[in-house]
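Incident review: delayed structure delivery

Summary: a single-chain prediction request sat in the queue longer than the usual turnaround. Root cause was a stuck worker, restarted by the on-call engineer. No data loss occurred. The affected request and its eventual output are reproduced below so the record is complete for anyone auditing the incident later.

Affected input:
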Amino acid sequence: MNLIAKNKIAEYIGKHPEARVDLLTWLEEYPYREGKEPLSGYKDKDMVHAGCGSGSSSPGSGDYVIKYRINYDAKIHCITWVGTKEQIVQEFKATREVNPALKEQIVIEQVFSAPPPQNHDGIKEWTKSKTQKTQIAVISGKGSLDEKINLKEAEYEKELARAIALLEARPNTPEFFELLDLLPLINSYEAYKLKFPPIYAFEIVTLRMNLFELTPLNLATMLGRSENELKLFLSGEVMLRDEILAELYKILSLHIPINNPHFIQ
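Output delivered after worker restart:
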């Protein structure tokens, strides 16, 4: 799936910096979760999806919601809204005051559960550095930036608005082919020109630990390491070797490969 309109995430973080870790972790995991499946949480791989639909995800701690429209044929998720669950509740209450007959919607969320504790032998080395942090540059898309695809912000916004207008296009129509032609332009701009603040591996791990209600001692036991060593990592003072970080991501069900090209050491 192609995720577009990521500018909505960038803009929301700019106004609400406290959402940075939750939203950027979701953005990093997207290609390996929602981006791989027809719809978030849907597991029937034999079902053929076509046409258009909608979906939503609840990133990180679950306080935030990302809504998107889907064109299954064009393989597009288009972000339409980013905000908090509290905003949705307040908007619903305001709408129900105008229309008392309106019924509440049922929201189905994907629930993560931590795997049982287990020791992992052979993972013994941790590498210290002078407050070096593993930074993730949040970008998407493949390939290098072509000189011909060098949109200005105003041009990007125009092309994105056109793609949104064409999102309901059906296959084998002029509108559908126009929509497909717009994707490389939008993806390239969002991959190389959208500005996001940095995010670090220890922040992502801390977020997931809080979600699973795990302590440093819990994780250290699972990894077969000392609690002090893990605390050094969680404070940003220590960088982990790739194999250790990969095992840590596996334990925490983090869908980010350790060889992700978005990582900057």
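Verification: The chain is about 40% helix and 15% strand.
Action items: add queue-age alerting; document worker restart procedure.
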